[in-house]
Design goal:
The structure holds two protein chains of two kinds. By secondary structure, chain A is of the alpha/beta class. Helix content of chain A is 44%, strand content 18%. Chain A folds into two domains: 159 residues, Rossmann fold (3-Layer(aba) Sandwich); 214 residues, Rossmann fold. Chain A is globular and about 55 Å long. Chain B has a domain of 177 residues: TIM Barrel. In chain B, strands 1-2-3-4-5-6-7-8 form an eight-stranded parallel beta barrel, surrounded by eight helices. In chain B, α10 links the parallel β7 and β8. In chain B, 55% of the residues are buried. Classes of the chains: A alpha/beta, B alpha/beta. At the A-B interface, β2, α2, α9 and β11 of A face α3, α5 and β5 of B.
Chain lengths: 414, 263
């Protein structure tokens, strides 16, 4: 199943990607993607796929989603010029402000869209997984807004390091189930959410939070998150009269990044750069840099790059940011890397924290630690490419990270 | 109990063993063990005894993310992985068994360990280890062609799962393509929960049986002789997984437990 691209194959695949041919009929992005789930879920995924095709292009559905995005989420989010960072880095830096979206991150774009779809499909209840807690909060909020009961699975380690978000989910009426099995982080939470869904595939809707999982989730999440890139592209043209030279986003499962990148894929002059979590360093188990260090395999429903050992067992991962602490990545990112359209690099815990601090003190914005990775990548790139124009997807705000920041950046300072 | 007939293809021996049990007036028992659980040594010891008691033996390849399994098999898989169990060790150990087990052997594995081992190497290595069939819970029919063809080339079959929510046309298609036996999941959910046998379940199993030309075995949540007795009129066999793993977990003798299921 693992295929190395031959000369010519990569450019042919990229042409098809730009033409919007992926995912194909089989839910594939080139060799990646597909649908690797227990038989019990196959009819539910068929129904979901039919629902995605039926409703996402439906004018009435689109109008309802647009109204929720405008009046409740607060879209469009701002594109902010960052004068101090621009001066420091010697580049023109723009920030796409997903931190200003309701509940504090891009996750709400997907959550409200899928919750609306779940209602159309007749779901009785929603289950969701969460890593950093942002998707859990967004799902809880969207479900409260639409009157759907919501259960969120969250790794026990994440419950502790993202404690403020557990309280928010509970206030929003969700049931939060700490997952003590597996790695006790996002991966275990997804496994547990899948087990819940397998138990009631007809009445339950699984609101998956990233561009991962079995077809059609990578498509569905990309479509709902592409609002980020569409807005940013139009805002750049309006504010500067041109497209940027490079666009940066952090990559865990890869939802903010695919949402940011996808509308720019057909713009050959725009470099796209994804930043993964380099954690403590390049050793296996010390990071979550799936694309830069993994190899292809199947986890949680799709064939994509994966951090695994020689026996195909999934690796424990590490990142200071819970939202990036995941051994898999969305299949479209694997394609975009293989074709060379997007460059992926990794940023260590320390570099991400340092860049987070820099943004706080210069721009008056506290980004999420996840987003700190994108800032660090952009700064490195600006050093090598002075005078260029950059856009950073500021995927979320850092309020949820205060417990971690108190143990790291603020240690000994309070 | 029949001995393995070498003129039959590997996957055909599975159905033969199930039908042989039926010919004796018994519902076939497909026993499940997690490989290397509770320890590598104990597993190999119990494997021979269970394979001489059950009609078919399903051996679980431990995986870090067993999404179709309940707590019991998750726990056993984790312990086996900590103990250093890998697919390579399992195949080597099976090949090295002093005497061939009476029951045909199946491997239950999630897809990724099989991909890591290599679809090119797997069929011959599995055949040499005496494996007659594979159950891959996260490999639905649509994604299975490459694996299916590679295994069938050496006579190994891919056992297909069907569930109570499988639509009729899909059920018919899956029954046509299955090898060994049809693994009819008795309920939606993960392995290991106790289930009653309500009329919907027996009706569904009858539907499966009508569509299938190979034996049908019910699995997920089978724990008692009472359940086996209720299922006996509608299936040719039952898969006993979590309950058997729990017997091993408690350090009890699996042989009387299996004999007890026969009532």
């Amino acid at each position: 199943m693992q295929r190395l691209f031959e000369v010519g194959e990569a450019s042919a695949l990229l042409k098809r990607e730009i033409a919007g041919e992926f995912p194909d009929q089989r839910g594939r992005f080139g060799p990646y993607g597909g649908r690797y789930v227990p038989e019990t879920l196959m009819p539910a995924l068929d129904r979901l796929e039919a629902g995605v095709h039926r409703w996402l292009g439906d004018p009435e559905f689109a109008a309802e989603l647009d109204a929720q995005l405008a009046d409740w989420v607060g879209r469009p989010t701002a594109l902010s010029f960052a004068p101090a960072l621009s001066a420091k880095w010697g580049a023109k830096v723009y920030l796409k402000r997903e931190d200003l979206a309701h509940t504090g991150a891009h996750k709400i774009n997907n959550a409200i869209g899928q919750a609306l779809l779940a209602k159309r499909l007749g779901a009785k209840r929603i289950v969701a997984e969460t890593g950093a807690g942002q998707h859990g909060v967004a799902s809880a909020a969207a479900c409260a807004r639409l009157g759907l009961p919501c259960t969120v699975y969250m790794g026990a380690i994440d419950c502790e390091r993202q404690a403020p978000n557990v309280g928010r989910m509970k206030l929003l009426g969700a049931t939060v189930v700490p997952v003590t099995g597996g790695d006790q982080t996002l991966r275990a939470a997804i496994d547990e959410a899948l087990r819940d869904w397998v138990s009631d595939p007809n009445g339950t809707y699984y609101l998956l939070g990233s561009a991962v999982g079995p077809h059609p989730y990578p498509l569905l999440v990309r479509q709902l998150q592409s609002v980020i890139g569409r807005e940013a592209r139009a805002q750049m043209i309006r504010q500067t009269g041109a497209l940027p030279d490079a666009v940066f986003a952090c990559v865990g499962g890869g939802s903010n990044s695919i949402g940011m990148f996808h509308p720019f894929i057909g713009d050959p002059g725009v470099q796209l750069i994804g930043l993964e979590a380099g954690g403590r360093g390049p050793a296996l188990g010390d990071n979550s840099a799936t694309l830069t260090m993994g190899r292809p395999g199947v986890l949680q429903g799709c064939y994509s790059m994966l951090l695994q050992d020689a026996d195909g067992q999934i690796q424990e991962t590490h990142s200071v940011s819970a939202g990036l602490d995941y051994p898999g990545v969305g299949p479209e990112h694997s394609l975009l890397m293989s074709t060379g359209r997007v460059q992926y690099d990794y940023i260590t815990d320390d570099e991400a924290l340092e860049s987070l601090a820099e943004c706080c003190s210069t721009e008056g914005i506290i980004p999420a630690i996840e987003t700190g990775h994108a800032f660090a990548g952009a700064r490195k790139w600006a050093e090598k490419n002075p005078g260029t124009t950059l856009v950073i997807c500021l995927s979320g705000r850092g309020d949820k990270d205060m417990p971690t920041l108190q143990r790291t950046l603020l240690k000994g300072k309070l | 109990m029949t001995t393995v007939n070498t003129t039959r293809l590997g996957h055909e021996t599975i159905g033969d063993a199930i039908l042989a049990a039926n010919a004796r007036g018994e519902t076939a028992i497909v026993g499940f063990m997690t490989a290397g659980f509770p320890t590598k040594e104990k597993f190999l010891e119990e494997l021979v005894r269970i394979a001489n008691t059950a009609d078919v033996l399903e051996i679980g390849v431990p995986f870090t993310d067993p999404m179709a399994d309940g707590m019991t098999i998750q726990r056993a898989s984790h312990q086996a992985l900590v103990g250093g169990v890998s697919l390579a060790w399992i195949l080597e150990s099976l090949r090295g068994l002093a005497a061939r087990p009476k029951a045909p052997l199946l491997l239950m594995s999630y897809l990724n360990p099989l991909l890591a081992f290599g679809i090119d190497r797997l069929p011959a290595a599995a055949r040499d280890a005496g494996v007659a069939g594979f159950i891959v819970p996260d490999l639905p029919y649509e994604e299975s062609h490459e694996m299916r063809a590679a295994l069938e080339a050496v006579g190994i079959g891919l056992v297909q799962m069907v569930t109570p929510v499988t639509p009729h046309e899909r059920l018919a298609m899956l029954c046509r393509e299955a090898r060994g036996f049809i693994y009819a999941v008795t309920m939606t959910g993960t392995t290991g929960k106790q289930v009653a046998v309500p009329t919907e379940v027996t009706e569904y199993l009858q539907r499966v049986r009508q569509l299938s030309s190979i034996p049908v075995c019910a699995g997920f949540g089978i724990r008692s002789a009472e359940q086996v007795r209720l299922l006996a009129p509608v299936v040719q066999g039952v898969v006993v997984g979590s309950a058997l793993v729990e017997v091993l977990e408690r350090g009890e003798d699996p042989v009387p437990f299996i004999l007890g299921l026969r009532g």
